Amino acid sequence: MKKYIVVFMILSLLLYACEQTEENIVDVQNSDIVIETIETFDNNGRGIKVDKSKAVIYDGVIMPEIPKAPPNSYDIAKTLSYQDKWFRTEAVYYPRFTDEIKYEGSEKIKQYYAELAEEQEGYINNISISDEVYDDYFNYHLYTYVTYDVIFFEKYLSVLYFSVGYYGGIHSFDQYWADNFDMTTGEILKLEDLFGYEYMYREILQELICKNLLIQYDEDIFFENPYEVPNIMQNIYDSRFRITEKGIDFIFPTYAIAPYDAGNIFVTVPYEELSEILLMEIGE
Questions:
Q1: Strand pairing of 85-95 and 143-153?
Q2: What does residue 39 show for φ and ψ, rounded to 5 degrees?
Q3: 57 φ, ψ to 5°?
Q4: pLDDT tens across 215-244, in order?
Q5: Higher pLDDT, 143 or 138
Q6: Element (H, E) at 114
Q7: Taking the model in full, what pTM does it have?
Q8: In this structure, are strands 265-270 and 247-252 parallel, antiparallel, or unpaired?
């Protein structure tokens, strides 16, 4: 008799779970479910929390509302549905410069973003859904949003991108990266352009980054003292820095040196501290 009771309970739970999965697929426009905040930019490119917005929940996964495109943007967005149910959203924004860049390299920079937007639009428009892939994608790739922030400083342009998406697991994933341009040439700058070959700057820059991490953050947020992190510089490469008015920001992605709750870690090294290794005239 006990065996029958156990079997009945298991079947009841399975049936309940199936019903909940179906009920938890909520239309974006008509949802009453509210998410408290999502992360976006403040004026300095730091992560901040924005106003409440409607959301979709699928098996406990929250999809925030599509962020508004910044002014003068390439606006590339697409929402996919399958059998009248919401399935996947992609929204990507890139800067569309007009008269902001008054240097010789302006046309090259504009062309770079025009081509990037065209490539991204082609990718999004070619996303298709079939019975074979529906179940996998529906569970593991619900949304991707990419927006940006722009800094003009001296003859340099820094475009910081922020991406947030859900790809499976217990939470969304966000990351920052940057393109830094010399506006006189239109070329994207690399660490090598700023500091020379790695052996010329690695030891000094590592010391400056670790020192400023402990100045700008409480040591308790890190997995361990930055000075004790093996190969900490492996997280710093050409798209993980940006040029600002105060110094150069270096970006550590989520989980690199701190838990998920700490997010991406930005550390600013002032120009005066970089004078010994900086090859370019910035912030003088």
A1: parallel
A2: -90, 140
A3: -120, 130
A4: 999 999 999 999 999 889 999 999 999 999
A5: 143
A6: helix 106-125
A7: 0.74
A8: antiparallel
191 is written with which tokens?
Answer: 């660490």
pLDDT at 18 > cutoff 50 = no
H/E segment holding residue 210:
helix 198-216
* The total number of residues written for the chain in this structure: 284
How far apart (Å, rounded) are the C-alpha atoms in residues 12 and 150? Answer: 54
Q: Which domains are assigned to the chain?
A: 26-188 (3.30.565.40), 191-274 (3.90.640)
Place of tokens 């909940």: 20
Q: Which residue in this structure is represented by tokens 């639009």?
A: 121
In this prediction, what percent of the chain has a pLDDT beyond 90?
Answer: 47
113 and 97 Cβ atoms separated by less than 8 Å: yes
Task: For residue 159, count CB atoms less than 10 angstroms from its CB and return exposed for 0-12, middle for 13-18, buried for 19 or more.
Answer: buried
